[in-house]
Amino acid sequence: MDESKAWSKEEICTHLGDDYDRYLGAIVPPIFQNTLFTRKNMDHGYTYTRVANPTTEIAEKKIAALEGAEQARCFSSGMAAITAALMSVMEKDCHIICPLNVYPPTKSFLDTYMKKFGVETTFVSGESTDELEAAIRPNTKAIYLETPLSNVFTLQDLRAIAAIAKAKGIITIVDNTCATPLFQNPIAYGIDIVVHSATKYMGGHSDILAGVMVGSSERMEQVTHRERGMFGATMDPHQSWLLIRGLRTLPLRMRQHQESGLRLAEFLEAHPLVERVLYPGLPSHPQYELGRSQMSGYSGLISFVPRGNQEQIIAFIKGLELFEEGPSWGGFESLINSPGLWIDEETSKQTGMPQRLIRISIGLEHPDSLMNDLDRSLAGMKRN
Ligand SMILES: Cc1ncc(COP(=O)(O)O)c(C=O)c1O
Question: What is the pTM of this model?
Protein backbone atom coordinates (compact mmCIF):
# COMPACT_ATOMS: atom_id res chain seq x y z
CA MET A 1 0.00 0.00 0.00
CA ASP A 2 1.39 3.40 -1.00
CA GLU A 3 1.31 5.33 2.27
CA SER A 4 2.85 8.45 0.70
CA LYS A 5 -0.15 9.18 -1.59
CA ALA A 6 -2.88 11.67 -0.62
CA TRP A 7 -5.52 9.71 1.30
CA SER A 8 -9.08 10.91 1.86
CA LYS A 9 -10.27 10.77 5.47
CA GLU A 10 -12.62 7.91 4.49
CA GLU A 11 -9.69 5.94 3.02
CA ILE A 12 -7.54 6.64 6.06
CA CYS A 13 -10.27 5.23 8.29
CA THR A 14 -11.02 2.19 6.14
CA HIS A 15 -7.60 1.22 4.73
CA LEU A 16 -4.52 3.15 5.87
CA GLY A 17 -2.22 0.76 7.74
CA ASP A 18 -3.59 -2.38 6.04
CA ASP A 19 -0.75 -4.71 5.06
CA TYR A 20 -2.21 -7.88 3.53
CA ASP A 21 1.18 -9.36 2.58
CA ARG A 22 2.45 -9.08 6.14
CA TYR A 23 -0.66 -10.67 7.71
CA LEU A 24 -1.36 -13.64 5.36
CA GLY A 25 -4.06 -11.74 3.46
CA ALA A 26 -6.20 -11.27 6.59
CA ILE A 27 -8.69 -8.51 5.75
CA VAL A 28 -8.62 -7.45 9.40
CA PRO A 29 -5.17 -7.22 11.02
CA PRO A 30 -4.41 -9.60 13.88
CA ILE A 31 -4.26 -8.55 17.53
CA PHE A 32 -0.65 -8.82 18.66
CA GLN A 33 -1.71 -9.77 22.18
CA ASN A 34 1.85 -10.29 23.40
CA THR A 35 4.10 -8.31 25.71
CA LEU A 36 7.50 -9.39 24.40
CA PHE A 37 8.95 -9.55 20.87
CA THR A 38 11.95 -11.89 20.68
CA ARG A 39 14.63 -10.98 18.20
CA LYS A 40 17.17 -13.78 18.16
CA ASN A 41 16.78 -14.29 14.41
CA MET A 42 15.09 -11.06 13.28
CA ASP A 43 15.63 -7.35 13.53
CA HIS A 44 12.03 -6.13 13.37
CA GLY A 45 12.41 -3.17 15.73
CA TYR A 46 9.88 -4.30 18.38
CA THR A 47 10.83 -5.20 21.94
CA TYR A 48 8.02 -4.70 24.44
CA THR A 49 4.35 -3.70 24.07
CA ARG A 50 4.60 -0.83 26.56
CA VAL A 51 6.93 0.82 24.01
CA ALA A 52 5.45 -0.27 20.66
CA ASN A 53 3.04 -2.87 19.29
CA PRO A 54 2.12 -3.51 15.60
CA THR A 55 -1.66 -3.49 16.27
CA THR A 56 -1.46 -0.23 18.22
CA GLU A 57 0.72 1.25 15.47
CA ILE A 58 -2.10 0.82 12.93
CA ALA A 59 -4.44 2.94 15.09
CA GLU A 60 -1.64 5.49 15.55
CA LYS A 61 -1.00 5.69 11.82
CA LYS A 62 -4.68 6.33 11.09
CA ILE A 63 -5.11 9.00 13.78
CA ALA A 64 -1.88 10.85 12.86
CA ALA A 65 -3.03 10.94 9.21
CA LEU A 66 -6.54 12.10 10.16
CA GLU A 67 -5.04 14.96 12.19
CA GLY A 68 -2.43 15.83 9.55
CA ALA A 69 0.28 15.26 12.16
CA GLU A 70 3.65 13.56 11.85
CA GLN A 71 2.96 10.91 14.49
CA ALA A 72 0.49 9.73 17.14
CA ARG A 73 0.76 7.71 20.34
CA CYS A 74 -2.10 5.76 21.90
CA PHE A 75 -2.78 5.71 25.65
CA SER A 76 -5.02 3.68 27.94
CA SER A 77 -7.52 6.56 28.33
CA GLY A 78 -8.10 10.16 27.33
CA MET A 79 -6.92 11.32 30.75
CA ALA A 80 -3.71 9.28 30.34
CA ALA A 81 -3.04 11.14 27.05
CA ILE A 82 -3.94 14.55 28.54
CA THR A 83 -1.79 14.20 31.66
CA ALA A 84 1.12 12.80 29.58
CA ALA A 85 0.87 15.73 27.14
CA LEU A 86 0.88 18.26 29.98
CA MET A 87 3.69 16.48 31.85
CA SER A 88 5.76 16.47 28.65
CA VAL A 89 5.83 20.28 28.57
CA MET A 90 5.57 21.34 32.23
CA GLU A 91 8.52 22.20 34.41
CA LYS A 92 8.73 22.75 38.16
CA ASP A 93 7.20 26.14 39.15
CA CYS A 94 5.89 26.87 35.65
CA HIS A 95 2.63 28.55 34.65
CA ILE A 96 -0.19 27.19 32.47
CA ILE A 97 -3.22 28.90 30.90
CA CYS A 98 -6.43 26.93 30.48
CA PRO A 99 -10.18 27.57 29.91
CA LEU A 100 -12.24 27.38 33.09
CA ASN A 101 -14.88 25.04 31.64
CA VAL A 102 -12.36 22.45 30.48
CA TYR A 103 -13.14 18.75 31.17
CA PRO A 104 -13.26 18.73 35.03
CA PRO A 105 -10.57 16.06 35.72
CA THR A 106 -8.18 18.05 33.48
CA LYS A 107 -8.95 21.15 35.57
CA SER A 108 -8.40 19.20 38.81
CA PHE A 109 -5.10 17.80 37.53
CA LEU A 110 -3.78 21.32 36.93
CA ASP A 111 -5.50 23.06 39.79
CA THR A 112 -4.96 20.64 42.65
CA TYR A 113 -2.54 17.87 41.66
CA MET A 114 0.12 19.90 39.82
CA LYS A 115 0.01 22.59 42.52
CA LYS A 116 2.09 20.16 44.61
CA PHE A 117 4.95 20.73 42.15
CA GLY A 118 4.63 24.52 42.15
CA VAL A 119 2.70 24.66 38.86
CA GLU A 120 0.25 27.57 38.75
CA THR A 121 -2.68 27.71 36.35
CA THR A 122 -4.64 30.76 35.24
CA PHE A 123 -8.15 29.82 34.18
CA VAL A 124 -9.70 32.06 31.53
CA SER A 125 -13.02 31.97 29.65
CA GLY A 126 -11.15 31.18 26.43
CA GLU A 127 -13.63 33.18 24.34
CA SER A 128 -11.46 36.29 24.42
CA THR A 129 -8.01 35.93 22.89
CA ASP A 130 -7.04 39.29 24.51
CA GLU A 131 -7.87 37.97 27.98
CA LEU A 132 -5.81 34.87 27.25
CA GLU A 133 -2.85 36.90 25.96
CA ALA A 134 -2.98 39.14 29.03
CA ALA A 135 -2.65 36.05 31.25
CA ILE A 136 0.76 35.13 29.78
CA ARG A 137 3.65 35.37 32.27
CA PRO A 138 7.41 35.00 31.74
CA ASN A 139 7.18 31.41 33.09
CA THR A 140 4.13 30.37 31.00
CA LYS A 141 5.04 27.00 29.49
CA ALA A 142 1.80 25.92 27.86
CA ILE A 143 -1.63 27.07 26.76
CA TYR A 144 -4.05 24.17 27.11
CA LEU A 145 -7.27 24.44 25.08
CA GLU A 146 -10.45 22.45 24.54
CA THR A 147 -12.63 23.66 21.68
CA PRO A 148 -15.60 23.33 21.52
CA LEU A 149 -15.83 23.01 25.31
CA SER A 150 -17.91 19.92 25.83
CA ASN A 151 -20.63 21.37 28.13
CA VAL A 152 -20.96 25.07 27.28
CA PHE A 153 -19.79 24.79 23.63
CA THR A 154 -17.86 28.04 23.55
CA LEU A 155 -14.88 28.10 21.20
CA GLN A 156 -11.29 29.29 21.33
CA ASP A 157 -9.67 30.88 18.28
CA LEU A 158 -7.03 28.29 17.36
CA ARG A 159 -5.20 30.30 14.69
CA ALA A 160 -4.91 33.46 16.82
CA ILE A 161 -3.87 31.63 19.99
CA ALA A 162 -1.30 29.47 18.17
CA ALA A 163 0.27 32.60 16.64
CA ILE A 164 0.49 34.40 20.00
CA ALA A 165 1.97 31.32 21.68
CA LYS A 166 4.51 30.65 18.91
CA ALA A 167 5.81 34.21 19.09
CA LYS A 168 6.52 33.70 22.81
CA GLY A 169 7.86 30.12 22.63
CA ILE A 170 4.82 28.72 24.49
CA ILE A 171 3.57 25.20 23.65
CA THR A 172 -0.10 24.82 22.69
CA ILE A 173 -2.15 21.71 23.43
CA VAL A 174 -5.75 21.15 22.24
CA ASP A 175 -8.28 18.59 23.42
CA ASN A 176 -10.00 17.92 20.08
CA THR A 177 -12.35 15.19 21.35
CA CYS A 178 -15.59 17.04 20.70
CA ALA A 179 -14.91 18.06 17.07
CA THR A 180 -13.04 14.83 16.19
CA PRO A 181 -10.22 14.89 13.60
CA LEU A 182 -12.88 14.74 10.89
CA PHE A 183 -14.21 18.20 11.69
CA GLN A 184 -11.21 20.10 13.09
CA ASN A 185 -7.44 19.75 12.62
CA PRO A 186 -5.63 22.09 15.06
CA ILE A 187 -2.13 21.15 13.81
CA ALA A 188 -2.96 22.92 10.52
CA TYR A 189 -3.49 26.14 12.52
CA GLY A 190 -0.09 25.94 14.23
CA ILE A 191 -1.08 24.04 17.40
CA ASP A 192 1.76 21.84 18.73
CA ILE A 193 -0.02 18.90 20.39
CA VAL A 194 -3.53 17.47 19.96
CA VAL A 195 -5.08 15.07 22.48
CA HIS A 196 -8.27 13.03 22.31
CA SER A 197 -10.41 10.87 24.46
CA ALA A 198 -10.84 8.11 21.85
CA THR A 199 -13.36 6.65 24.30
CA LYS A 200 -15.92 8.95 22.67
CA TYR A 201 -16.58 9.23 18.90
CA MET A 202 -13.41 7.48 17.70
CA GLY A 203 -14.21 4.28 19.59
CA GLY A 204 -17.89 5.00 19.03
CA HIS A 205 -19.35 1.87 20.63
CA SER A 206 -19.11 2.71 24.36
CA ASP A 207 -16.93 -0.34 24.94
CA ILE A 208 -13.35 0.99 25.21
CA LEU A 209 -11.47 3.58 27.21
CA ALA A 210 -8.82 5.04 24.93
CA GLY A 211 -6.67 8.14 24.47
CA VAL A 212 -4.32 9.52 21.87
CA MET A 213 -1.73 12.28 21.55
CA VAL A 214 -0.48 13.62 18.19
CA GLY A 215 2.33 15.99 17.25
CA SER A 216 5.79 16.14 15.73
CA SER A 217 7.90 12.99 15.34
CA GLU A 218 10.52 14.42 17.69
CA ARG A 219 7.98 15.05 20.45
CA MET A 220 6.19 11.70 19.98
CA GLU A 221 9.47 9.76 20.09
CA GLN A 222 10.36 11.47 23.38
CA VAL A 223 6.90 10.74 24.80
CA THR A 224 7.23 7.05 23.83
CA HIS A 225 10.11 6.64 26.24
CA ARG A 226 9.27 9.28 28.84
CA GLU A 227 5.63 10.09 29.65
CA ARG A 228 4.15 6.96 28.01
CA GLY A 229 6.99 4.54 28.60
CA MET A 230 7.72 5.64 32.18
CA PHE A 231 4.17 6.20 33.47
CA GLY A 232 3.14 3.10 31.54
CA ALA A 233 -0.39 4.09 30.48
CA THR A 234 0.06 2.53 27.03
CA MET A 235 -2.95 1.29 25.09
CA ASP A 236 -3.51 -2.46 25.31
CA PRO A 237 -3.40 -4.28 21.90
CA HIS A 238 -6.98 -5.55 22.20
CA GLN A 239 -8.14 -2.01 22.98
CA SER A 240 -6.18 -0.84 19.89
CA TRP A 241 -7.90 -3.43 17.73
CA LEU A 242 -11.33 -2.26 18.90
CA LEU A 243 -10.27 1.35 18.29
CA ILE A 244 -9.26 0.46 14.70
CA ARG A 245 -12.67 -1.14 14.23
CA GLY A 246 -14.36 2.01 15.55
CA LEU A 247 -12.27 4.24 13.29
CA ARG A 248 -13.35 2.33 10.17
CA THR A 249 -16.90 3.71 10.51
CA LEU A 250 -16.02 7.12 12.03
CA PRO A 251 -16.81 9.20 8.90
CA LEU A 252 -20.15 7.46 8.42
CA ARG A 253 -21.12 7.83 12.07
CA MET A 254 -20.00 11.47 12.27
CA ARG A 255 -22.10 12.36 9.22
CA GLN A 256 -25.15 10.92 10.99
CA HIS A 257 -24.29 12.49 14.38
CA GLN A 258 -23.92 15.84 12.65
CA GLU A 259 -27.12 15.57 10.61
CA SER A 260 -29.21 14.43 13.60
CA GLY A 261 -27.44 16.93 15.90
CA LEU A 262 -28.31 19.87 13.68
CA ARG A 263 -31.93 18.75 13.26
CA LEU A 264 -32.41 18.33 16.99
CA ALA A 265 -30.65 21.60 17.82
CA GLU A 266 -33.01 23.42 15.42
CA PHE A 267 -36.01 21.58 16.88
CA LEU A 268 -35.02 22.51 20.45
CA GLU A 269 -34.32 26.12 19.50
CA ALA A 270 -37.86 26.46 18.11
CA HIS A 271 -39.48 24.68 21.08
CA PRO A 272 -41.62 26.87 23.39
CA LEU A 273 -40.42 24.96 26.49
CA VAL A 274 -36.74 25.59 25.73
CA GLU A 275 -35.13 28.84 26.81
CA ARG A 276 -31.78 28.54 25.11
CA VAL A 277 -29.74 26.12 22.97
CA LEU A 278 -25.93 25.97 22.90
CA TYR A 279 -24.69 24.33 19.69
CA PRO A 280 -21.87 25.77 17.53
CA GLY A 281 -23.66 24.69 14.33
CA LEU A 282 -26.60 27.06 14.93
CA PRO A 283 -26.32 30.57 13.40
CA SER A 284 -27.56 31.92 16.77
CA HIS A 285 -24.34 30.69 18.47
CA PRO A 286 -22.33 33.83 19.41
CA GLN A 287 -19.17 32.33 17.85
CA TYR A 288 -20.85 30.78 14.79
CA GLU A 289 -18.48 32.52 12.35
CA LEU A 290 -15.38 31.45 14.29
CA GLY A 291 -16.73 27.89 14.26
CA ARG A 292 -17.19 28.01 10.50
CA SER A 293 -13.66 29.32 10.05
CA GLN A 294 -11.94 26.54 12.03
CA MET A 295 -14.35 23.58 11.95
CA SER A 296 -15.73 21.71 8.96
CA GLY A 297 -18.61 20.11 10.88
CA TYR A 298 -20.33 19.67 14.26
CA SER A 299 -20.95 16.67 16.43
CA GLY A 300 -24.08 15.31 18.07
CA LEU A 301 -23.48 17.06 21.39
CA ILE A 302 -25.98 19.78 22.30
CA SER A 303 -26.68 21.71 25.50
CA PHE A 304 -29.94 23.48 26.27
CA VAL A 305 -31.82 25.14 29.10
CA PRO A 306 -35.43 23.95 29.50
CA ARG A 307 -38.10 26.37 30.78
CA GLY A 308 -38.82 24.66 34.06
CA ASN A 309 -37.69 24.35 37.66
CA GLN A 310 -35.33 21.62 38.92
CA GLU A 311 -38.20 19.27 39.78
CA GLN A 312 -39.81 19.64 36.36
CA ILE A 313 -36.46 19.12 34.59
CA ILE A 314 -35.80 15.94 36.58
CA ALA A 315 -39.26 14.70 35.56
CA PHE A 316 -38.41 15.53 31.93
CA ILE A 317 -35.15 13.53 32.12
CA LYS A 318 -36.79 10.55 33.82
CA GLY A 319 -39.66 10.64 31.31
CA LEU A 320 -37.40 10.08 28.28
CA GLU A 321 -37.47 6.62 26.75
CA LEU A 322 -34.65 6.72 24.20
CA PHE A 323 -32.09 8.75 26.18
CA GLU A 324 -30.23 6.99 28.97
CA GLU A 325 -28.90 9.21 31.77
CA GLY A 326 -25.11 9.44 32.16
CA PRO A 327 -22.07 11.66 31.74
CA SER A 328 -20.22 10.08 28.78
CA TRP A 329 -20.95 10.71 25.10
CA GLY A 330 -19.91 9.93 21.52
CA GLY A 331 -21.30 6.39 21.39
CA PHE A 332 -24.09 4.81 19.33
CA GLU A 333 -26.59 5.51 22.11
CA SER A 334 -28.31 8.78 22.99
CA LEU A 335 -27.55 10.12 26.46
CA ILE A 336 -28.64 12.97 28.68
CA ASN A 337 -26.69 14.62 31.49
CA SER A 338 -27.40 17.65 33.65
CA PRO A 339 -24.17 19.58 34.40
CA GLY A 340 -25.99 22.84 35.24
CA LEU A 341 -29.00 21.49 37.10
CA TRP A 342 -27.65 21.91 40.63
CA ILE A 343 -25.40 24.97 40.32
CA ASP A 344 -26.35 28.21 42.10
CA GLU A 345 -26.43 31.68 40.58
CA GLU A 346 -23.00 32.60 41.94
CA THR A 347 -21.31 29.51 40.42
CA SER A 348 -23.13 30.11 37.16
CA LYS A 349 -21.77 33.68 37.05
CA GLN A 350 -18.23 32.56 37.89
CA THR A 351 -18.09 29.70 35.39
CA GLY A 352 -20.31 30.89 32.55
CA MET A 353 -22.26 27.62 32.82
CA PRO A 354 -25.99 28.47 32.63
CA GLN A 355 -28.11 27.28 35.56
CA ARG A 356 -30.32 24.27 34.67
CA LEU A 357 -28.07 23.38 31.69
CA ILE A 358 -28.82 19.97 30.20
CA ARG A 359 -26.53 18.20 27.72
CA ILE A 360 -27.61 15.55 25.26
CA SER A 361 -25.42 13.29 23.15
CA ILE A 362 -27.30 12.34 20.00
CA GLY A 363 -26.73 8.70 19.12
CA LEU A 364 -27.49 6.74 15.99
CA GLU A 365 -31.21 6.23 16.57
CA HIS A 366 -33.53 7.80 13.96
CA PRO A 367 -33.66 11.58 14.57
CA ASP A 368 -37.48 11.58 14.24
CA SER A 369 -37.75 9.10 17.12
CA LEU A 370 -35.39 11.20 19.27
CA MET A 371 -37.33 14.36 18.46
CA ASN A 372 -40.64 12.72 19.40
CA ASP A 373 -39.16 11.44 22.65
CA LEU A 374 -37.87 14.91 23.62
CA ASP A 375 -41.11 16.58 22.57
CA ARG A 376 -43.27 14.14 24.56
CA SER A 377 -41.18 14.42 27.70
CA LEU A 378 -40.91 18.24 27.47
CA ALA A 379 -44.72 18.41 27.22
CA GLY A 380 -44.95 16.25 30.35
CA MET A 381 -42.76 18.78 32.16
CA LYS A 382 -45.42 21.46 31.54
CA ARG A 383 -48.14 19.37 33.21
CA ASN A 384 -46.03 18.77 36.33
C1 LIG B 1 -13.60 16.56 26.49
C2 LIG B 1 -13.06 15.37 27.20
N3 LIG B 1 -11.73 15.19 27.24
C4 LIG B 1 -11.19 14.13 27.88
C5 LIG B 1 -11.97 13.19 28.52
C6 LIG B 1 -11.31 12.06 29.26
O7 LIG B 1 -11.36 10.90 28.53
P8 LIG B 1 -11.30 9.43 29.16
O9 LIG B 1 -12.59 9.20 29.87
O10 LIG B 1 -11.10 8.56 27.97
O11 LIG B 1 -10.12 9.39 30.10
C12 LIG B 1 -13.36 13.31 28.46
C13 LIG B 1 -14.22 12.30 29.10
O14 LIG B 1 -15.42 12.47 29.26
C15 LIG B 1 -13.92 14.45 27.81
O16 LIG B 1 -15.24 14.64 27.78
Answer: 0.97
DSSP annotation string for 33-55: --SB---SS---S--BTTT--HH
Of the three residues 200, 217, 248, the one that is the final residue of a domain is 248
Q: Answer yes or no: is 1 within a domain.
A: no
What is the tens place of the pLDDT at every residue in 151-175?
A: 999 999 999 999 999 999 999 999 9
pLDDT tens-digit readout, 261-294: 999 999 999 999 999 999 999 999 999 999 999 9
Q: In total, how many domains does the chain have? A: 2
Q: Which residues surround ligand 1 with Cβ inside 6 Å?
A: 77-79, 103, 146, 150, 175, 177-178, 197, 199, 209, 211, 328
Of the residues 212, 230, 248, the one at which a domain ends: 248
pLDDT in tens, 209-247: 999 999 999 999 999 999 999 999 999 999 999 999 999
Q: With H, G, I as helix, E, B as strand and everything else as coil, classify residue 138.
A: coil
Range of the domain at 49: 9-248
**Between vectors from CA 203 to CA 211 and to CA 60, what angle results, nearest 5°?**
50
Nearest-CA residue for atom 9 of ligand 1 = 78
Query: Closest residue (by CA) to atom 15 of ligand 1?
Result: 103
Q: Name the closest-CA residue to atom 10, ligand 1.
A: 78
The packing angle between helices 250-270 and 237-248, to 10°, is 60
Give the whole-angstrom CA distance, residue 36 versus residue 82: 27
